Amino acid sequence: IVAAAAFATFLLVVGILWWSGCLRRRSTLERDLKGIELQTGSFTLRQIKDATNNFDAANKIGEGGFGPVYKGILADGKEIAVKQLSARSNQGNREFVTEIGMISALQHPHLVKLYGCCIEGNQLMLIYEYLENNSLARALFGPEEFQLTLDWPTRRKICIGIARGLAYLHEESRLKIVHRDIKATNVLLDKNLDPKISDFGLAKLDEEDNTHISTRIAGTYGYMAPEYAMHGRLTDKADVYSFGIVALEIVSGTCNTKHNRVKKESFYLLDVAHTLKQEGNLLDLIDPRVASHCNAGEAMVMVDVALLCTNPTAAARPSMSMVVSVLEGRASVSDILTDSSIYASKFDAKKLYGRVEGNDAENNSQVKIMLRDGQWTSSFDLY
Protein backbone atom coordinates (compact mmCIF):
# COMPACT_ATOMS: atom_id res chain seq x y z
CA ILE A 1 0.00 0.00 0.00
CA VAL A 2 2.83 2.36 0.92
CA ALA A 3 4.62 1.60 -2.35
CA ALA A 4 1.43 2.17 -4.34
CA ALA A 5 0.81 5.46 -2.57
CA ALA A 6 4.37 6.58 -3.21
CA PHE A 7 4.07 5.68 -6.89
CA ALA A 8 0.77 7.55 -7.16
CA THR A 9 2.37 10.59 -5.52
CA PHE A 10 5.27 10.38 -7.98
CA LEU A 11 2.88 10.29 -10.93
CA LEU A 12 0.98 13.26 -9.51
CA VAL A 13 4.17 15.30 -9.13
CA VAL A 14 5.31 14.41 -12.66
CA GLY A 15 1.88 15.33 -13.99
CA ILE A 16 1.93 18.69 -12.23
CA LEU A 17 5.42 19.46 -13.52
CA TRP A 18 4.44 18.47 -17.05
CA TRP A 19 1.25 20.54 -16.95
CA SER A 20 3.02 23.56 -15.49
CA GLY A 21 5.61 23.25 -18.26
CA CYS A 22 2.86 23.23 -20.89
CA LEU A 23 1.22 26.27 -19.28
CA ARG A 24 4.55 28.06 -19.09
CA ARG A 25 5.22 27.22 -22.74
CA ARG A 26 1.81 28.55 -23.73
CA SER A 27 2.05 31.71 -21.61
CA THR A 28 5.53 32.40 -23.01
CA LEU A 29 4.20 32.06 -26.55
CA GLU A 30 1.26 34.36 -25.81
CA ARG A 31 3.60 36.92 -24.25
CA ASP A 32 5.90 36.78 -27.27
CA LEU A 33 2.97 37.17 -29.64
CA LYS A 34 1.74 40.26 -27.79
CA GLY A 35 5.15 41.81 -28.36
CA ILE A 36 4.89 41.75 -32.14
CA GLU A 37 2.62 43.61 -34.50
CA LEU A 38 0.69 41.10 -36.57
CA GLN A 39 -0.70 42.07 -39.95
CA THR A 40 -2.42 38.78 -40.72
CA GLY A 41 -5.76 37.08 -40.25
CA SER A 42 -6.69 34.63 -37.52
CA PHE A 43 -8.09 31.15 -38.08
CA THR A 44 -9.83 28.81 -35.66
CA LEU A 45 -8.72 25.25 -35.15
CA ARG A 46 -12.14 24.08 -36.41
CA GLN A 47 -11.62 25.97 -39.68
CA ILE A 48 -8.23 24.36 -40.22
CA LYS A 49 -9.45 20.88 -39.31
CA ASP A 50 -12.32 21.22 -41.77
CA ALA A 51 -9.97 22.54 -44.46
CA THR A 52 -7.48 19.67 -44.10
CA ASN A 53 -10.06 16.95 -43.37
CA ASN A 54 -8.76 16.72 -39.80
CA PHE A 55 -5.13 16.73 -40.97
CA ASP A 56 -5.67 13.71 -43.19
CA ALA A 57 -2.39 12.06 -44.20
CA ALA A 58 -3.56 12.24 -47.82
CA ASN A 59 -3.35 16.03 -47.57
CA LYS A 60 0.20 16.09 -46.24
CA ILE A 61 2.43 17.77 -48.82
CA GLY A 62 5.72 18.10 -47.00
CA GLU A 63 7.74 18.45 -43.84
CA GLY A 64 9.05 21.87 -42.89
CA GLY A 65 11.53 22.87 -40.23
CA PHE A 66 8.68 23.12 -37.73
CA GLY A 67 6.70 20.01 -38.60
CA PRO A 68 4.23 18.72 -41.20
CA VAL A 69 2.69 20.85 -43.94
CA TYR A 70 -0.83 20.12 -45.17
CA LYS A 71 -2.87 21.25 -48.12
CA GLY A 72 -6.32 22.52 -47.24
CA ILE A 73 -9.39 24.09 -48.80
CA LEU A 74 -11.29 26.75 -46.85
CA ALA A 75 -15.07 27.05 -46.88
CA ASP A 76 -14.85 29.77 -49.55
CA GLY A 77 -12.87 27.44 -51.83
CA LYS A 78 -9.49 29.09 -51.27
CA GLU A 79 -6.58 26.63 -51.27
CA ILE A 80 -4.12 26.95 -48.40
CA ALA A 81 -0.95 25.38 -47.05
CA VAL A 82 -0.96 24.77 -43.29
CA LYS A 83 2.40 24.70 -41.54
CA GLN A 84 1.92 22.94 -38.20
CA LEU A 85 4.40 23.35 -35.36
CA SER A 86 5.46 19.96 -34.08
CA ALA A 87 5.63 19.48 -30.31
CA ARG A 88 9.03 17.89 -30.89
CA SER A 89 10.23 20.64 -33.22
CA ASN A 90 13.88 21.64 -32.92
CA GLN A 91 12.98 25.19 -33.84
CA GLY A 92 10.29 25.80 -31.22
CA ASN A 93 8.22 28.78 -30.27
CA ARG A 94 10.81 31.51 -30.74
CA GLU A 95 11.23 30.75 -34.45
CA PHE A 96 7.45 30.41 -34.80
CA VAL A 97 6.93 33.87 -33.37
CA THR A 98 9.80 35.24 -35.48
CA GLU A 99 8.27 33.86 -38.65
CA ILE A 100 4.82 35.27 -37.88
CA GLY A 101 6.23 38.68 -37.03
CA MET A 102 8.44 38.99 -40.08
CA ILE A 103 6.20 37.51 -42.73
CA SER A 104 3.16 39.46 -41.56
CA ALA A 105 5.06 42.66 -42.34
CA LEU A 106 6.23 41.56 -45.79
CA GLN A 107 4.18 41.92 -48.95
CA HIS A 108 5.79 41.23 -52.32
CA PRO A 109 4.81 39.27 -55.45
CA HIS A 110 7.86 37.03 -55.06
CA LEU A 111 7.41 36.13 -51.39
CA VAL A 112 5.00 33.43 -50.24
CA LYS A 113 1.91 35.17 -48.87
CA LEU A 114 0.94 34.52 -45.26
CA TYR A 115 -2.85 34.48 -44.85
CA GLY A 116 -2.79 34.20 -41.09
CA CYS A 117 -2.17 31.96 -38.11
CA CYS A 118 -4.00 29.63 -35.76
CA ILE A 119 -3.06 29.63 -32.08
CA GLU A 120 -5.51 27.57 -30.11
CA GLY A 121 -4.74 25.33 -27.15
CA ASN A 122 -1.44 23.62 -27.95
CA GLN A 123 -1.92 24.08 -31.70
CA LEU A 124 0.42 26.54 -33.43
CA MET A 125 -0.01 26.93 -37.17
CA LEU A 126 0.80 29.27 -40.04
CA ILE A 127 -1.59 29.45 -42.99
CA TYR A 128 -0.03 30.32 -46.36
CA GLU A 129 -1.19 30.59 -49.92
CA TYR A 130 -0.94 27.23 -51.67
CA LEU A 131 1.54 27.05 -54.54
CA GLU A 132 0.38 24.55 -57.14
CA ASN A 133 3.72 23.67 -58.69
CA ASN A 134 5.62 22.90 -55.50
CA SER A 135 9.33 23.78 -55.32
CA LEU A 136 11.87 24.83 -57.92
CA ALA A 137 14.07 21.97 -56.72
CA ARG A 138 11.45 19.37 -57.55
CA ALA A 139 10.68 21.02 -60.89
CA LEU A 140 14.34 21.03 -61.96
CA PHE A 141 15.89 17.90 -60.50
CA GLY A 142 13.38 16.04 -58.37
CA PRO A 143 12.06 12.57 -59.22
CA GLU A 144 11.50 12.40 -62.97
CA GLU A 145 7.74 12.01 -62.67
CA PHE A 146 7.52 15.33 -60.80
CA GLN A 147 9.88 17.39 -62.95
CA LEU A 148 8.36 20.22 -64.98
CA THR A 149 9.19 21.40 -68.46
CA LEU A 150 10.86 24.73 -67.83
CA ASP A 151 11.87 26.41 -71.10
CA TRP A 152 14.50 29.12 -71.18
CA PRO A 153 12.15 32.15 -70.91
CA THR A 154 10.54 30.52 -67.87
CA ARG A 155 13.92 29.85 -66.23
CA ARG A 156 15.00 33.44 -66.83
CA LYS A 157 11.70 34.68 -65.39
CA ILE A 158 12.19 32.51 -62.30
CA CYS A 159 15.75 33.74 -61.77
CA ILE A 160 14.74 37.38 -62.08
CA GLY A 161 11.78 36.83 -59.75
CA ILE A 162 13.99 35.36 -57.02
CA ALA A 163 16.38 38.29 -57.42
CA ARG A 164 13.52 40.78 -57.10
CA GLY A 165 12.27 39.07 -53.96
CA LEU A 166 15.71 39.23 -52.35
CA ALA A 167 16.21 42.85 -53.40
CA TYR A 168 12.96 43.65 -51.61
CA LEU A 169 14.05 41.85 -48.44
CA HIS A 170 17.48 43.49 -48.39
CA GLU A 171 16.79 47.00 -49.61
CA GLU A 172 13.13 47.86 -50.07
CA SER A 173 11.11 46.50 -47.15
CA ARG A 174 10.66 48.39 -43.89
CA LEU A 175 12.46 45.51 -42.18
CA LYS A 176 15.82 44.72 -43.73
CA ILE A 177 15.96 40.93 -43.66
CA VAL A 178 18.65 38.35 -44.40
CA HIS A 179 16.95 35.07 -45.29
CA ARG A 180 20.11 32.94 -44.79
CA ASP A 181 18.74 29.74 -46.32
CA ILE A 182 18.11 30.58 -49.97
CA LYS A 183 18.06 27.41 -52.07
CA ALA A 184 15.93 25.84 -54.78
CA THR A 185 13.87 23.95 -52.19
CA ASN A 186 12.84 27.25 -50.60
CA VAL A 187 11.60 28.70 -53.89
CA LEU A 188 8.02 27.68 -54.63
CA LEU A 189 6.26 28.00 -57.98
CA ASP A 190 2.67 29.14 -58.50
CA LYS A 191 0.32 28.05 -61.28
CA ASN A 192 2.02 30.45 -63.71
CA LEU A 193 5.49 29.23 -62.67
CA ASP A 194 6.23 32.54 -60.99
CA PRO A 195 8.69 32.05 -58.08
CA LYS A 196 8.00 32.86 -54.45
CA ILE A 197 10.59 32.71 -51.68
CA SER A 198 9.48 30.67 -48.67
CA ASP A 199 10.64 29.40 -45.26
CA PHE A 200 11.54 32.43 -43.17
CA GLY A 201 12.22 30.33 -40.06
CA LEU A 202 15.96 31.03 -40.27
CA ALA A 203 15.68 34.67 -41.29
CA LYS A 204 17.54 37.37 -39.37
CA LEU A 205 16.84 41.07 -39.14
CA ASP A 206 19.67 43.04 -40.73
CA GLU A 207 20.60 45.60 -38.09
CA GLU A 208 21.22 48.92 -39.82
CA ASP A 209 24.02 50.00 -37.48
CA ASN A 210 26.01 46.79 -37.85
CA THR A 211 28.12 45.81 -40.83
CA HIS A 212 27.51 42.17 -40.02
CA ILE A 213 25.76 39.95 -37.52
CA SER A 214 27.73 37.27 -35.69
CA THR A 215 25.39 34.33 -35.26
CA ARG A 216 25.17 30.60 -34.88
CA ILE A 217 25.51 28.99 -38.27
CA ALA A 218 22.24 27.70 -39.67
CA GLY A 219 21.72 26.91 -43.31
CA THR A 220 22.44 24.32 -45.97
CA TYR A 221 25.77 22.94 -47.16
CA GLY A 222 26.64 24.01 -50.67
CA TYR A 223 24.62 27.22 -50.44
CA MET A 224 26.33 28.98 -47.53
CA ALA A 225 28.76 31.83 -48.16
CA PRO A 226 32.35 31.13 -47.01
CA GLU A 227 32.44 33.88 -44.38
CA TYR A 228 29.18 32.62 -42.90
CA ALA A 229 29.98 28.92 -43.12
CA MET A 230 33.37 29.30 -41.48
CA HIS A 231 32.95 32.24 -39.11
CA GLY A 232 29.23 32.93 -38.71
CA ARG A 233 29.58 36.43 -40.20
CA LEU A 234 26.14 37.16 -41.62
CA THR A 235 25.23 40.02 -43.97
CA ASP A 236 22.90 40.35 -46.92
CA LYS A 237 25.86 39.26 -49.06
CA ALA A 238 25.36 35.72 -47.70
CA ASP A 239 21.99 35.65 -49.47
CA VAL A 240 23.65 37.03 -52.61
CA TYR A 241 26.05 34.08 -52.57
CA SER A 242 23.20 31.59 -52.14
CA PHE A 243 21.32 33.23 -54.99
CA GLY A 244 24.35 32.72 -57.22
CA ILE A 245 24.26 29.00 -56.52
CA VAL A 246 20.54 28.82 -57.31
CA ALA A 247 21.12 30.73 -60.56
CA LEU A 248 23.68 28.12 -61.61
CA GLU A 249 21.15 25.39 -60.83
CA ILE A 250 18.53 27.11 -62.97
CA VAL A 251 20.89 27.38 -65.94
CA SER A 252 22.27 23.84 -65.65
CA GLY A 253 19.20 21.99 -64.37
CA THR A 254 21.60 20.26 -61.96
CA CYS A 255 21.53 20.20 -58.17
CA ASN A 256 24.50 22.03 -56.66
CA THR A 257 25.46 19.21 -54.32
CA LYS A 258 25.71 15.50 -54.95
CA HIS A 259 27.35 12.85 -52.83
CA ASN A 260 28.49 9.40 -53.92
CA ARG A 261 28.25 7.24 -50.82
CA VAL A 262 30.22 4.40 -52.42
CA LYS A 263 33.15 6.49 -53.62
CA LYS A 264 32.72 8.97 -50.75
CA GLU A 265 33.03 11.82 -53.22
CA SER A 266 31.14 15.11 -53.30
CA PHE A 267 30.25 17.15 -56.37
CA TYR A 268 29.76 20.92 -56.35
CA LEU A 269 28.25 22.73 -59.31
CA LEU A 270 30.18 25.90 -58.49
CA ASP A 271 33.50 24.10 -58.95
CA VAL A 272 32.31 22.77 -62.31
CA ALA A 273 31.31 26.28 -63.42
CA HIS A 274 34.73 27.69 -62.53
CA THR A 275 36.49 24.87 -64.37
CA LEU A 276 34.38 25.41 -67.50
CA LYS A 277 35.03 29.16 -67.36
CA GLN A 278 38.78 28.64 -67.22
CA GLU A 279 38.52 26.28 -70.19
CA GLY A 280 36.34 28.73 -72.12
CA ASN A 281 33.47 26.24 -72.26
CA LEU A 282 30.79 27.88 -70.12
CA LEU A 283 28.11 27.07 -72.69
CA ASP A 284 28.53 23.42 -71.69
CA LEU A 285 26.91 24.33 -68.37
CA ILE A 286 23.52 24.94 -70.00
CA ASP A 287 20.92 22.25 -69.32
CA PRO A 288 20.74 19.95 -72.40
CA ARG A 289 16.94 20.08 -72.09
CA VAL A 290 16.97 23.75 -73.16
CA ALA A 291 20.40 24.18 -74.79
CA SER A 292 19.12 23.93 -78.36
CA HIS A 293 16.51 26.65 -77.99
CA CYS A 294 17.79 29.03 -75.33
CA ASN A 295 19.22 32.51 -75.72
CA ALA A 296 22.94 31.83 -75.25
CA GLY A 297 23.67 35.49 -74.54
CA GLU A 298 21.10 35.63 -71.74
CA ALA A 299 22.37 32.34 -70.34
CA MET A 300 25.95 33.61 -70.24
CA VAL A 301 24.84 36.81 -68.49
CA MET A 302 23.09 34.68 -65.88
CA VAL A 303 26.17 32.51 -65.37
CA ASP A 304 28.49 35.53 -65.17
CA VAL A 305 26.18 37.12 -62.59
CA ALA A 306 26.10 33.85 -60.64
CA LEU A 307 29.90 33.71 -60.53
CA LEU A 308 30.07 37.32 -59.36
CA CYS A 309 27.48 36.60 -56.67
CA THR A 310 29.53 33.62 -55.44
CA ASN A 311 32.74 35.62 -55.14
CA PRO A 312 34.60 34.33 -52.05
CA THR A 313 35.04 37.95 -50.94
CA ALA A 314 31.72 39.21 -49.59
CA ALA A 315 32.43 42.88 -50.31
CA ALA A 316 33.00 42.10 -54.00
CA ARG A 317 29.53 40.62 -54.45
CA PRO A 318 26.92 42.89 -56.05
CA SER A 319 23.73 44.03 -54.34
CA MET A 320 20.56 42.21 -55.33
CA SER A 321 19.10 45.37 -56.85
CA MET A 322 22.13 45.55 -59.15
CA VAL A 323 21.69 41.87 -59.99
CA VAL A 324 18.10 42.59 -61.01
CA SER A 325 19.24 45.45 -63.25
CA VAL A 326 21.78 43.24 -65.04
CA LEU A 327 19.41 40.29 -65.48
CA GLU A 328 16.71 42.59 -66.85
CA GLY A 329 19.18 44.16 -69.29
CA ARG A 330 19.19 47.64 -67.71
CA ALA A 331 22.87 47.27 -66.78
CA SER A 332 25.77 45.15 -67.96
CA VAL A 333 27.96 42.63 -66.19
CA SER A 334 30.89 45.04 -66.50
CA ASP A 335 28.97 47.52 -64.33
CA ILE A 336 29.32 45.20 -61.34
CA LEU A 337 32.73 43.76 -62.19
CA THR A 338 34.99 45.55 -59.70
CA ASP A 339 38.08 43.32 -59.70
CA SER A 340 38.69 41.00 -62.62
CA SER A 341 41.43 39.13 -60.80
CA ILE A 342 39.08 38.20 -57.97
CA TYR A 343 36.33 37.34 -60.47
CA ALA A 344 38.66 34.99 -62.35
CA SER A 345 40.03 33.22 -59.29
CA LYS A 346 38.97 29.63 -58.81
CA PHE A 347 36.99 28.91 -55.67
CA ASP A 348 37.15 25.37 -54.28
CA ALA A 349 33.66 24.72 -52.88
CA LYS A 350 34.43 21.07 -52.18
CA LYS A 351 37.37 22.04 -50.01
CA LEU A 352 35.38 24.69 -48.15
CA TYR A 353 32.40 22.52 -47.26
CA GLY A 354 34.63 19.64 -46.31
CA ARG A 355 36.22 21.93 -43.73
CA VAL A 356 32.82 23.20 -42.55
CA GLU A 357 31.48 19.68 -42.12
CA GLY A 358 34.48 18.79 -40.01
CA ASN A 359 33.94 21.84 -37.81
CA ASP A 360 30.22 21.36 -37.11
CA ALA A 361 30.51 20.65 -33.41
CA GLU A 362 33.08 23.38 -32.91
CA ASN A 363 30.86 25.97 -34.61
CA ASN A 364 27.72 24.89 -32.71
CA SER A 365 25.93 24.96 -36.04
CA GLN A 366 22.47 24.00 -37.20
CA VAL A 367 23.43 23.06 -40.74
CA LYS A 368 21.27 21.03 -43.09
CA ILE A 369 23.58 18.52 -44.75
CA MET A 370 22.16 18.16 -48.24
CA LEU A 371 25.26 16.53 -49.66
CA ARG A 372 24.84 13.55 -47.34
CA ASP A 373 21.05 13.34 -47.19
CA GLY A 374 20.45 14.09 -50.85
CA GLN A 375 17.04 15.57 -49.97
CA TRP A 376 16.69 18.12 -52.70
CA THR A 377 13.07 17.53 -53.58
CA SER A 378 10.20 19.23 -51.82
CA SER A 379 9.51 16.55 -49.23
CA PHE A 380 11.50 18.60 -46.75
CA ASP A 381 11.66 22.31 -45.93
CA LEU A 382 8.44 22.97 -47.85
CA TYR A 383 6.96 26.29 -46.74
UniProtKB/TrEMBL annotation:
Top-rank lineage group of the source organism: Eukaryota
Subcellular location as annotated: Membrane
Sorted UniProt keywords: ATP-binding, Glycoprotein, Kinase, Membrane, Nucleotide-binding, Phosphoprotein, Receptor, Repeat, Serine/threonine-protein kinase, Signal, Transferase, Transmembrane, Transmembrane helix
Gene3D superfamilies: Phosphorylase Kinase, domain 1, Transferase(Phosphotransferase) domain 1
GO molecular function: ATP binding; protein serine/threonine kinase activity
Cellular component annotations (GO), alphabetically ordered: membrane
Record membrane topology: Single-pass type I membrane protein
Occurrences of domain Protein kinase (ranges): 55-333
SUPFAM superfamilies in UniProt: Protein kinase-like (PK-like)
Chief location: membrane
SMART domains, per database record: S_TKc (SM00220)
PANTHER family attached to this UniProt entry: LEUCINE-RICH REPEAT-CONTAINING PROTEIN DDB_G0281931-RELATED, PROTEIN KINASE DOMAIN-CONTAINING PROTEIN
Protein name: Protein kinase domain-containing protein
Annotated organism of origin: Gossypium klotzschianum
